[in-house]
Amino acid sequence: MRHGLDERKAKLFQQKPFIPGRKAKYFFTFCILGMAWGSLRSQRRQEDARKSSHRTGQILRRLVPFVQAMEDVRICAIHERNYLMLQSICASDPAVFEELRRRYNQEDL
């Protein structure tokens, strides 16, 4: 054994065989796995958005009657306030009050 000749000869031949296109196969596999992961993630996000939209719709359906009731109370209060203001303005002459009430309530049509 002259100065590691056997070791140098062993390095000439690799232990594992050469597979042509190994890097390309790894690259394509990585790309396909990335596309699969991306499509699954996209589907998951769309599903979450759909569930969130459905849940929001359910909450709004339960909430709308309360909001409508609050608006009804506000509108009734506004009408009552306007009626009281008109009545106090026309307190001196009932005929003016009746004329204004008929005119603005559209009873003259």
Brief characterization of the structure:
The chain has helices spanning 5-12, 22-89, 94-104. It is an all-alpha fold and 109 residues long.
Report on this structure.
The protein is mainly α and about 110 residues long. It has one domain. It contains three helices and no strands. The longest helix is centred in the middle third of the chain and has 68 residues. It is rod-shaped. The N and C termini lie far apart (about 125 Å).
Features:
109 residues; rod-shaped; mainly alpha; single chain; 80% helix; 3 helices
The total beta strand count reads: 0
The secondary-structure element order is HHH
The low-confidence parts are none
- Percentage of residues assigned to helices: over 70%
Number of domains: 1
Q: SSE layout and pairings?
A:
Blueprint: H1 5-12, H2 22-89, H3 94-104
